[in-house]
Amino acid sequence: MYVLLCTLGDVLLDVIVRLEQPLARGDDARASARAGAGGQAANVAAWAVELGAQGRIVGKRGDDEAALLVERELLAHGVELVGPTVAAAGGIVVSLVDPDGERSMLSDRGVSPTLRAEELDVAWFRGCDALHLSGYALLARPIDEAGAKAAGAVRAQGGTISVDLSASSAIRDFGPERFLARLAHLEPDVVFAGEAELEALGDDPPARTLVLKHGSGGFTVVDHEGGRQAHAAHDVDALDTTGAGDALAAGFLVGGPELALEAAARCVSKVGAMP
């Protein structure tokens, strides 16, 4: 079990919109909505704390009201936030949730991708047992360089590196070969991927362990020698799948497959990505 899980990437405002009827182009549709802290790095760190570890986020944040709301909520969850704050708007992600719980994302990452390697303080990674990187942090410059520097700092003190591939569309737009090359440079211990993301990548990621997510079908753990172990998801009524993969990743890193299943089930049983 990891004592301190560090994450690097997005710290955003999540706006969750649960549709009560199909979208009507140019017209109204009934829905319910809520806003709160989100972003892949934030979600994983918050769930790590909820599951008994310590969570620290390294990220670049704005100073507008949305960013301040996110910061207050994360601090209330017991998450430690480090990284530069700049005079800019924070990022916002809108999650449209269908009546069956499936979500589609509209993302404005704000200043998060502008985190530079020279803005990092290596002291932020002192004591980190593991560093979890959002795939989005590998897909844009200069945050990709910041991620590589952070990974080097954590690896130098014996910590492990994990990466979530994040989005199949982003991998295709960036280029699968380029993305595989960046993964190879990081040499992650664990990679989390959905089936669509793995298909977009076109090859197995270079990692000792692949956690292949199947949504409501659970996940399969594949080791570097080809061994496979399937884990069925808990049987729950899914209200909102936003952040389920992040809860699963936190659970897996903190306590292994069973805690991953428990965290994912808890996440989809409520609205929003935070614990």
Structural class by secondary-structure content:
alpha/beta
Biggest sheet overview: 9 strands, mixed
H-E order? EEEHEHEEEEHEHHEHEEEHH
Number of strands: 13
Distance between the termini: 19 Å
* Beta-strand percentage range: 25-35%
Architecture (CATH level 2) name = 3-Layer(aba) Sandwich
Question: Looking across the biggest beta sheet, what order are the strands in?
Answer: 5-4-1-8-9-10-11-12-13
Number of helices: 8
- Globular, elongated, flat, extended or rod-shaped: what is the shape? globular
What's the number of domains?
1
What portion of residues is helical?
A: 25-40%
Query: CATH superfamily name?
Result: Ribokinase
Low-confidence stretches: none
CATH topology type:
UDP-N-acetylmuramoyl-L-alanine:D-glutamate ligase
Which class in CATH terms?
Alpha Beta
Mean pLDDT: 92
| Radius of gyration (Å) | 17 Å
Structure description:
The two termini are 19 Å apart. This protein has a single domain (4-11, 39-92, 109-268), classed as UDP-N-acetylmuramoyl-L-alanine:D-glutamate ligase, CATH 3.40.1190. The relative contact order is 0.16. Strands 5-4-1-8-9-10-11-12-13 form a 9-stranded mixed beta sheet, sandwiched between helices. A 4-stranded mixed beta sheet has the order 3-2-6-7. It is built from 8 helices and 13 strands. It has helices at 40-50, 65-76, 143-156, 168-174, 176-186, 195-201, 244-255, 257-268; strands at residues 4-8, 12-19, 31-38, 54-58, 80-82, 92-97, 103-108, 130-134, 160-164, 190-194, 209-213, 219-223, 228-231. By secondary structure, the protein is of the alpha/beta class.
